[in-house]
Amino acid sequence: MQAVILAAGRGKRMKGLTQTTTKPMLKIKGKPILEHKINALPKKIKEVVFVVGYYSDHILRHFKRYYNGRRITYVFQHNINGTGGALHQAKCILKDKFLVMMGDDLYHKKDLENLMQNDLAILGYEVDDPSLFGVIKTNGNGHMIDVVEKPKNSRHKLANTGVYVLNKEFFEYDLVPIGGGEFGLPQTMARMAKDYKIKVEKARIWHPIGNPDDLEKAKEVLHQFL
Predict the structure, then answer these.
(1) Contact assessment for residue 33 and residue 104, using Cβ atoms and an 8 Å cutoff
(2) Every domain of the chain and the residues it spans
(3) What is the average per-residue pLDDT within 21-50?
(4) What CA–CA distances, in Å, run from 95 to 25, 63, 77, 111, 174?
(5) Terminal-to-terminal C-alpha distance of the chain
């Protein structure tokens, strides 16, 4: 099975930390974020597809063509046009079922293993304030209906963590524009959810890294992900 890691962006909210490198290569306890992410991948992942862009050479030099027994493939996203656009760059090399994740958040191996038991799935994390996140709307059977960005009032409490199990059927749907010339992956999945059952799995732990404070906090919580 393949895992696609979206790692093309700079990470502007990281301020000066990404002036000379890409955000997913920032270090937590001496290792790049991406290295921690790959080490958390379940054994059935045999190939990692990096979608790269900003300072892509840093990622290529570090991981090369093989890393810890896994094949590494690189796809270049020259036009940064959102997560949906990023995944489409890898369309031609993806097989039927694959895992997709963001390049800058920490996930637990057990959560990824649970997610991968499904044919189609999205990983959510229960939060106190849904208005700060993209929130997954579900039906009574625990399947995805929609993803709503920063809802003011919502009975749904599962934030979208940016991890998905998808298949090639995804590419049959038109990408959903989300503004600023970008196309959203989860918003496009919501279209797919009208025709397919997409299971919503609940994460036990998730640490998004959006700013320098999150990076510092990651050093304190890293042991929870090992």
Answers:
(1) yes
(2) 2-225
(3) 96
(4) 27, 22, 19, 22, 19
(5) 22
Question: Going by C-beta distance under 8 Å and a sequence separation of 6 or more, which residues neighbour residue 34?
Answer: 5, 7, 24, 25, 50, 59, 62, 63, 103
111's enclosing H/E stretch is helix 109-115
Fold adopted by 2-225: Spore Coat Polysaccharide Biosynthesis Protein SpsA; Chain A (3.90.550)
pLDDT digits (tens, 9 = 90+) for 93-123: 999 999 999 999 999 999 999 999 999 999 9
Tens of pLDDT, residue by residue over 16-32, are 999 999 999 999 999 99
pTM for the complete prediction? 0.96
Nearest to 186 by CA among 199, 173, 176: 176
